[in-house]
Amino acid sequence: MKIILVLLTIHTAFAADPVQDRDVWRIGTKYYSFQKDKTTNALLTADCLGKKKSCEAYKALLNKNKIQVSEKDRAGGKNPGAVVCKKNYGGEVLILRNSADNESAFCKFKDNSIASASDLF
Amino acid sequence: MKYGLFILGLLFSINSFAQSCGSLADGETIRIDEDNKSLQNFKVQDQDGLGSCYANAASLLLQGNLQGNPEISYLHLATLYKTEELASKRSSAKSSKDFDIYAKAATNNEKAINGGGDAMKWDLAIDGGNTCSLVTAVRDLEFKNKKPVVCLKSGMNLEKILTSGDAEHKQFKTFLETSLYMNKFQEIFGDIDEKPDLFNKKRVQADQEKYKNFKDGFTALITNKKKKIADHDCNRINADSLDSVVAPMTQMALTYSACFKEDFPSKDEYWCQVVINLVHNPKVQADGAVLVEGMNPLWIKKLQMKVVQKKSHFSSQNLADSITDTFVDGLKSLDFKGKAMAKQFMKDRIIGKTSVGKNLEALSNEYNEVATKGFSQACVERNTYNYFQSKEYENDWQGETSLCSYADLMKQATNVIMKYKESGLNDIDTAIGFLTAKAGENYDEAMMALYASDCSENNKVSIPSNTSCMTMDISRNDRSKVNEKIIEVIKANKPLTASLCSAIIKKPKSEFKEGECGNHALGITGIQCVAGKTRYLIQNSWGANTRATNQGIETIDGKGAYWFDEATFFDSVYGMDYIN
Using CA atoms, how far apart are residues B109 and B117, in angstroms rounded to an integer? Predict the structure, then answer.
């Protein structure tokens, strides 16, 4: 009996706690799963993290310091990331929501990789 | 003596140091975006490529000031404001270039829908404005109309279009598809308002006859269908929509991605069992998106039966409990202790961390409506919307002699109606009115009417007639006065908005290029005093992931907000608005 109690205690002590390791955003019934890239600190789709050199989203993130947004394109407080996504990269802006219903713009590139739009400039 | 002077000097400097935040005590922080304050339920906005910052800021200002702190549609605010602007412009300058953006040729519209053309041109309609002017305009509009005019975000069709699940940039597409419909309408019926004595009288009368037959036929078709739905489908507790309500639970489950790996050692733990079972038939698409088929249909069926049996006195709490109990009791691999932990995990980490509670509130209201009135209006709206997407609808209008000759028009009209989701169909009569009457009027006026009037009366919010929006010009006031005004308003649990140069978010003013500013309007939702220095909490509308790179700004992760230090604030802010 004592042995069973000890084993149970050990099992409980070493059982893993719930771990959230993804940032999930949705639009309608479509869910997009992201991880934070350590180099750029941006949210990137997982497949991009696995093949950074060929991933358009990652290349765009590295290019951000070279991007300028004109005064006209800032008019009315436009989200510069959304503007850059469309104008500079011909990408598609996805306005996704997290589970608390907060919005954020993401840029989907032609190779289907996706990055948070705010990190593009 | 020297010792005394030294002590005096020390006391003086300590006193100055402590007083440099004005009437805010050192170490004090006041925020109104949390802890039962006015903006604790404010959802971070992302205005995308729209130049609507003045409307985003106004929605924050109004939410913080109005009773009940309602979540107002910034898109609706912007379109109302511009409708009023356009109305006055129209009377004085019909040939103004402002109207060209609405008067695009059908071919240009089609080209733009298919990917060509300048996809951002249409938003010039709501590009740029002033926060206080907008608040005053909507207040006056309500006074003129003698009823509320501003839509809640939840009741606004345009908002729902944006979250409909279509990955495309919906705003623009919706606008252009609607314009295609209207072009077709005008092509068939001409301008219904043409004065008969100015043109060919017989032709105009023939067009008006055709238009009347179309309008009567279309209205009758929809009215009959609505009645059938009300009598057969919506006179009972209808639990069909439960799986859409609980979608955020699936979203939260997906964040525990380790549970989906075959070799994960904790796969059998209570929390992984909850997570795995909340995601039914996941399919990963080419772009990495995961398509999920809602919840497990067996579980949904059990839950639906439980809900239907209850019959009355629904609340978000008892619906949440039903969801949790039914779901966890179905997890056969868990023992009694495991199920208890699973229920707590669902309560704390799944339902408690998402917007499910709010969704359940709306659903419980619908069920209670059936219990008390024998009928659910929300159910009719939802089912009528689904009808427009069905083959049955196409067969019905093709079978109507007054409608079948307008095949192309009916298809495009359906596209327009399909943009009116759920609560928008509560006002289906207005939608039909627009499609069959407004479209015959001036093109730009009709377009603005579509966007500026598309929510039902019970989704509108009143702006009291004594609402007074004040603007403070920063250049004409010293810093201490500005600071004290912010402290005063924030302490009263209300926000302010700031007009500033958005370039400051990325770099200090000393690094601005010639003419570089980027006029922008943001919210002020907090203030703090740290070591005698004031910091201001600034809420942006560039999404929850926005980050600042200016050293004088600290980003608050996941909130789309920042703490501006005093120097950075006064380097960039040139105006402040607040409601008196």
Answer: 8
B481 phi-psi bin (left φ>0, alpha ψ -120 to 50, beta other) = alpha
Instruction: Please report which residue ranges of B190-315 form alpha helices under DSSP H.
Output: 201-232, 242-245, 247-254, 270-277, 297-310
Give the pLDDT band of residue A47 (cuts 50, 70, 90).
confident
Which tens digits make up the pLDDT trace of B418-447?
665 443 444 566 666 666 665 555 555 555
Contact residues for A65 (Cβ-Cβ < 8 A; gap 6+): none
Mean pLDDT of B546-571: 95
| Sign for the pseudo-dihedral over CA of B175, B180, B184, B187 | positive
Closest chain B residue to the Cα of A41, Cα to Cα: B547
* The two structure tokens encoding residue B448: 């603005």
From CA B24, how far away is CA B34, in angstroms rounded?
19
**Residue B154 above 80 pLDDT?**
no
Contact at CB, B44 and A102, closer than 8 angstroms: yes
ipTM above 0.85, yes or no: yes
Domains of chain B: residue spans and CATH: 14-51+467-579 (3.90.70), 239-373 (no CATH)
Nearest to B286 among A31, A102, A112 (CB): A112
Do B81 and B55 form a contact (C-beta atoms < 8 A)? yes
The reported pLDDT for the residue numbered B75 is: 82
pLDDT score of B214 more than 80: yes
Q: Kindly report the nearest CA distance between residue B365 and chain A, in angstroms.
A: 21
Contact criterion met (CB < 8 Å) for B255 and A21: yes
| Residue contact B520–A74, C-beta within 8 A | yes
DSSP code per residue over B274-301: HHHHTS-S-EE-TTS-EE--SS-HHHHH
**B41 DSSP assignment:** T
Chain B residues close to A8, C-beta within 8 Å: none
> Which residues of chain A make contact with B550, given a CB cutoff of 8 A?
none
For residue B460, the cross-strand partners are B151
Distance CA B54, CA B221 (A): 42
Of B247, B254, B294, the CB nearest to A33: B254
Read off the pLDDT band of A93 (50, 70, 90): confident
The reply to whether residue A114 touches residue B287, judged by beta carbons under 8 angstroms, is yes
